[in-house]
Amino acid sequence: MVALATIAAACGGTDDDAADAPAPATEDAGDAGDSGAEADSGDDGADDAAASDSGDDAGSDAAADDAASGPSGHLKISVATFPNSLIPPNAAERNAINVMQQIFDGLTHVTPDGEIAPALAESWTISDDGLVYTFQLRDGVTFHDGTSLDCQDVIDTYTIARDPVNAYAYVYETAEPSCGSSDLELLLTTEAPDPLLLRRLMEIGITSSEQAAQGLAAWEEQMIGAGPFKVVEWVKGERIELAAHDGYWDPQFPKVAQVTVFPMEEESTRIAAVQTGELDIANRLSADQAQVLNTTDGVSLLAYPTDRVYYIAFNNLTSGIGQPTEDVKVRQAMNMAVDREAIIDALFAGNAQLSNGLITNGNLGWDDTVGYYDYDPDAAKALLAEAGYADGFEIGMACPNGAYTNFEQVCQAVAGYLADVGITMANGGIEFMESGQYWELEAEKQLPPLFGDAWSTNLGEAVNRLQGAVLADASYAAWAEPTITELVDTIATTVDTDERAALYGELHRYMFENPPFIYLYEPQTFEGVNDRVSGYRPNAAETYHLKYVSVSE
């Protein structure tokens, strides 16, 4: 297709790039995302959790020396979007969440190896019926405002986060917090067993009761947490300044005294900045453009697979009501119309694999008998004709700027392939918009009937990705139907791992035959890291664990 050839030329993607693509980073990078799948997810924390330092093996002799001397050095990193919010119930996507998680700690922590470890809670037990989790909160934890942690802080965090104006209010509805026999005993009660609750709690950052009492607007402004770093300044659109929390509960961490986060939508800007030393870590780089870092002194190029599915979403909740895409034949045809292998070769130098659903290879319940939609424009046209759209139709589509590697070009390529089978873009073409505005419109379900996005998971299985993308009440969902909802809800409360895997397989097959998305690809990602950085371990969820990172001056 001419459009894709033009895009590929502009991006510099060639077969030579594919041949020269670096090998994946050490096994740590790949294994971090896989470890959740290998563990018995249904057994997470079934035994009493041992009280231990969440720094796990990071506490070597060097760590002890660092703890004695205190945090030092200045780490400079990029994010590929402009974060919309830095508080847990509203940070829209992985870039914003990565910054948020440096500011807020949850009751638990998932280590770079994918293991569940104590954080604000030092231990816990689970009732025999699996409905009541009793946490012993860590004594002596202080928030950034100087107040001390107790069970009321958790209750007040849940209360303010459940405000329906919050994008992720539904996350806080899964358990009911209450105080136990002391101020440091917390009970979380669920309506049904939740096999992944302990793993989810890492992203439910806790704020102080004093912060919560000031209201949501004040929380967005002050961002008080108990994480390893506190916010010094947020110059929106320019930088976020973080400083080590000198009252952090684990004296080993953080290692660095200062972190500056630079939102940089342009990949070329991120690459140039890490080359000149303005950045220590540049994220979300494409295979072709990142090659220059192989010959940059003092910079290492890391490559690793991500557990992130990219797609074009269909909408049957708001803007897509009454559109041709409500017909399953049309949705199948649109999947057949897009040459995804050509997109992967041209825009990612072959460094991605095809997607056939929101359950990825390596996730619990992946069904290897589910096929892929072959590129077959003639079959797509035939299906469109069967559905009554032999002449095609016009439909609106939107995509974010700078959010994901080469995603603008991907969206253009998809639109070009759809045009080849008679499906054209309304309003003169794809609506591209700044990522912050895009996430806001997506959360309000105000995007057009087609829109591009991606969803990752750090659980080793896809339940949170599914809950966020295909349950009607989820802020970023655009598609829902009873069969999918019933299966997702059942998965979320099924403790037995084998039974949960079978349900995933059933859902995988159903969502392939009845696609809520044009499934695109699951990419490998590249990062440039300055050699003065140590302790940085990327993972398949693209999660930053910056408290472990140190820099040499």
Describe the structure.
By secondary structure, the chain is of the alpha+beta class. The protein is built from 19 helices and 22 strands. Strands 11, 12, 13, 14, 16, 18, 19 and 20 form an 8-stranded mixed β-sheet that branches. The chain is globular.
Brief overview:
The protein is α+β, with helices and mostly antiparallel strands and 553 residues long. Helices cover 32% and strands 21% of the residues. It folds into 2 domains: 2-27 and 306-525, Dipeptide-binding Protein, Domain 3 (Dipeptide-binding Protein, domain 3), CATH 3.10.105.10; 53-255 and 532-551, 3-Layer(aba) Sandwich (D-Maltodextrin-Binding Protein, domain 2), CATH 3.40.190.
Q: Might you state the CATH topology name of the largest domain?
A: Dipeptide-binding Protein, domain 3
Please give the number of β-strands: 22
Taken together, the total number of domains comes to 2
Main beta sheet: strand number and arrangement? 8 strands, mixed
Our Rg estimate from Cα atoms comes to 23 Å
Approximate strand percentage = 15-25%
Which spans of ≥5 residues are poorly predicted at pLDDT below 50?
Answer: 1-64
Fold blueprint:
Elements: H1 2-11, H2 15-20, H3 27-38, H4 61-69, E1 74-79, H5 94-103, E2 108-110, E3 116-118, E4 121-126, E5 132-137, H6 151-161, E6 176-179, E7 185-189, H7 197-200, H8 209-213, H9 216-222, E8 229-235, E9 239-244, E10 258-263, H10 267-276, E11 281-285, H11 287-290, E12 299-305, E13 308-314, H12 328-337, H13 340-348, E14 352-354, H14 377-386, E15 393-395, E16 397-401, H15 407-420, E17 423-425, E18 431-434, H16 435-443, E19 450-456, H17 463-470, H18 482-493, H19 497-513, E20 517-530, E21 533-534, E22 550-551
